[in-house]
Amino acid sequence: MRVLSGLFIAFVIFVVAAVGVGFFLPDEAHVERSTVIEAPPATVYAVLGGFKQFNRWSPWADLDPKTQYQYSGAPFGPGARQKWQSDDPNVGGGSQEILEVTPYSMVKVRLSFDSMSTENQLTYTLTPEGEGTRLVWAMDTGFGGDLLNRYFGLLFDRMIGPDFEKGLSRLESLVESLPKDDFTAVPIEIRELPSRPLASLAGEAPHAESAPVIAAARARIGQFLAASGQRPAGAPLTITHGVDEPGGIWKFDVAVPLDQACTAATEEGGVQCGKSYQGWVLYARHERTDAAITSIFAALRTFKTVAGLEDNGDIWEQSTTDPATTPVADSATDLYWPIK
């Protein structure tokens, strides 16, 4: 009995000591690794600012090929979310969400694990270095006073650091294989658009000869609206359906937003009633005193490719000035590229 009593007392002393020491251990942990990537900060940022490219460089993506992923919220930037679920205990379940971005220099992510109550934040910090980018990947974890997790935190750097190093190596290879065309001269936004009623008319012409065709279509839609008692509710759009090669014939719809839906019974002269696209888009503005509109579309295309975003419909242009009364040098056009 004395032996058992001695063991019990020793155990109590050990527990009390462990608890006492736990109160003095850090209630948070920090892990950090860095690398230099031979690509501009904008390219690295476009990869890290959303989750569509994440599994192409993640150090954990190949642990369980059967892992299920779900994406929600914005396709890029604050509000973009990724959830994962796996039967493999080494992967488990969890989620991450973009909290904050500073274009081309910083991305903050909230990381949650279903099996842990810790608060985790990932921070990617990008700074130019030579012709490339120094990327610092950091993870800060708060234990919320949990004593066991405080002990666990002592091992964080040793456990997670090698994964960060593996991920950075994969990220370096991925980014250096992507287009590096500079798109930073074009202010690109991510927008979510509601659907709106439209009246539209199809047209086609070589791009250089399209202006009179578009003007005629707008005039015909205007006549239709006047005859049917409809009212425009915004600037006209030109929706691109494609370009036939080798003739270079641009196929498009000219459309006008309406304050209320029109019906098929009122269609005449080829004018169609319908709805505009609903969902997420890349947005940029083209001002005629700036670069050619093709360069704006090229910047949108590069950003879309690097970020891993997918096309989600026909692109369109919307005049923000009245083309009938505004000098070309003063005109402006909004460009929209549907994405998912």
Automatic annotation (TrEMBL):
InterPro entries: Polyketide_cyclase/dehydratase (IPR019587), Reg_factor_effector_dom_sf (IPR011256), START-like_dom_sf (IPR023393). It comes from the Bacteria. It holds the Pfam family Polyketide_cyc2. This is Bacterial transcription activator effector binding domain-containing protein. It comes from Hydrocarboniphaga effusa AP103. The lineage of its organism: Bacteria, Pseudomonadati, Pseudomonadota, Gammaproteobacteria, Nevskiales.
